[in-house]
Amino acid sequence: LYDNGIRTNAAEALGKIGDLKAVDPLIGALKYDKDQYVRSTAAKSLGVIGDTKAVDALTYAAQHDEEMNVRYFAEYALNEIQDK
Q1: In angstroms, rounded to a whole number, what is the distance separating the alpha carbons of residues 80 and 67?
Q2: DSSP string, 35-76
Q3: Does the predicted TM-score (pTM) go above 0.90?
Q4: Which of 15, 30, 44, 54 could hold 48 in an S-S bridge, CB 3.0 to 4.6 Å?
Q5: How far apart are CA 37 and CA 82, in angstroms?
């Protein structure tokens, strides 16, 4: 596939665009990408978009991802969604 930097930048761009069509691909990146920076950026972007559809995946990541930065951004995203 594409390198980690490209996937990270794509996840960030999807969050900035804010289209709800990006939610499913971002959830997929959060759940399945092997790179912690891609997962953390996907989590942050899900928070920016603010769709409650992402709550289950974000909650799981916040509690179970092995990387602290992914857990942090999943919590951030959950707070962002809650505040909307």
Answers
A1: 20
A2: -HHHHHHHHHHHHHH--GGGHHHHHHHHHH-SSHHHHHHHHH
A3: yes
A4: 15
A5: 23
Q: Which residues contact 3 (CB under 8 A, 6 or more apart)?
A: none
Say which amino acid occupies 19: D
**Gap between the Cα atoms of 18 and 2, Å rounded:** 22
**Cα separation, 39 vs 11, whole angstroms:** 9
In terms of Cα–Cα distance, which of 84, 21, 77, 35 is closest to 54? 77
Burial class for 49, CB neighbours closer than 10 Å (0-12, 13-18, 19+): buried
pLDDT tens by residue, 52-73? 999 999 999 999 999 999 999 9
Distance between CA atoms of residues 59 and 25, nearest Å: 17
